[in-house]
Amino acid sequence: MHPGAVVIGASAGGMDALAEIIPKLPKTFPVPVIIVQHISPLSDNYIATYLDKMSKVNVVEAEEKVKPVKGKAYIAPPNYHLLIERDKSFSLATFERVSFARPSIDVMFETAAEAFGIWLTGVILTGANHDGARGMEYIQALGGKTVVQDPETAEVDTMPKSALERITPTAVVPLKEIAGWLIKNIK
After folding, report:
1. Fold classified for 5-153+166-173
2. List 104, 131, 157, 162, catalytic entry
């Protein structure tokens, strides 16, 4: 079994971007996909239901103490930070917002980097703030792969550009090609 994971961070425009990527992943995708999409704290987590209906991988809301498994995608619940513990299980927290967000992409990326190390692939998508750039830098520092959505294909290019200001990623990929890149490069 592959010891890694893919983590994805998205904000403004993220629903459409995720709908372009997650449904293309095969049920046999060899690692779990863990997603932070900025969402209203009062929202129910319709994202998991929405993506699950169109995807081959099972898409669910991340729950406390669950260990992610291949063939599934997990969405951070609204108003909770999603942390990955050293044993690779999920932990949910309500400490203060980071970069004005809860869930925070940076928090999830950084804890995932510590849990998965060189076996982690981080993906930053469209968004209107800087959340995720520091986390991508940390993933790269611990030997993981980093993929940044080509800002030209982002609905809002601030997050991809912020990541590119901090790192030279493994790849800069147009939105429509990200799923293919993941399938080809994660075996």
Report:
1. Rossmann fold (3.40.50)
2. 131
